[in-house]
Amino acid sequence: MKRLLLSLVIVLSFAQAANALLFVRLTGMQDINYTGWVIGNGAITSSQDVCVYSTLALGSPYAITVTGSGGFNLVSGTNNLAYTITWDDSGPGSLGSHPINLTSGVKVQNLQNANFNLFHDDCSVEGMNARLTFSITQAAMMAAPAGTYTGTLTILLSQT
Amino acid sequence: MKLGKFFKLGFVPLLTGSLLATNALAASNGTLGATSTGTVNISITKSMQAQISDITDMVLASWNIGDPAVQLYSNLCIYSSTGNYKVTATGSGTSNAFTISNGTSTIPYSVVWNSGPAGSLASTGTSLTTNTQSGAFANASMAAANCGGSTNDTARVVVNIPQATMQAAPGSATAYTGTLTMLVTPN
Known about the structure:
The complex is a heterodimer.
Chain A: H1 2-20, E1 24-27, E2 32-37, E3 44-54, E4 62-68, E5 73-76, E6 79-82, E7 84-88, E8 99-101, E9 107-111, E10 130-136, H2 138-143, E11 147-159
Antiparallel strand pairs in A: 1-3, 3-10, 4-9, 4-11, 5-6, 7-8, 7-10
Chain B: E1 5-14, E2 17-18, E3 35-46, E4 48-53, E5 58-63, E6 70-80, E7 85-90, E8 99-101, E9 106-108, E10 110-114, E11 126-128, E12 132-133, E13 155-161, H1 163-168, E14 176-186
């Protein structure tokens, strides 16, 4: 009985240690600024390539939860401006081929192509492996009253 | 006696707008951990713009004694990126007076602004004073700079001349003419 308990403790400790080694890191984020939209301009689209690093394994799945400060709405006083966010996990050299539409605050799992280079966890060797794309339709820009609309995106990276 | 009078008002549309400044922001990368959180700040600025269009000249070919007061109007498309605007109307007479002239005589007129909305334009509204910015008007188009066509015009400018004024004005073979300039500013 004592041996069984000891084995159980060892197994649990190992699992705990392994879990502690499963680290992730998200880098490469950039602010999105657009000034001076005027009538006649088109839709606004801004993409940024980012680095998803995970110690789990090369190409191991990961999850993200992207949350907008007002849902996916920017705010100017009492006015809102809706936007959309996509996440592309196609990996270096293939970004843009697999955009996934996101909903604010909703976790998306089983994303692929995370970086596993311990010495270059910023993807400086392999290249950025995910793409965040922000979009506002022309119709939404037309309908919005003039003003400066602001908001914040929070991207939570976790292991799947 | 029969008086023959005719006049023409021309319009000069003006466009105003301004750009707004943006904020200085800073994104943040995540740190290494069981989870990692990055943030992106977003700032989108839509400029203030206004446009007045679909203006037509107002022409009365002749006015004879016994005819009623003169009322002419032009429906207008007012676009404003705020939906609201102010207007400054300026006459071409002495000291910007709302007058038309045949070179020797003048006829004063008054100007009324009706701000719709589209589909409900009328010839009544707010009296304007020359070269003086009005109060705020609403109902400007935000959907399209041309209002989507003249059937969606959002304002009407009306020129009125009382019958007595017309009757008192000397008959003339030369048209009484003038220009009414309207400056629209988003509000």
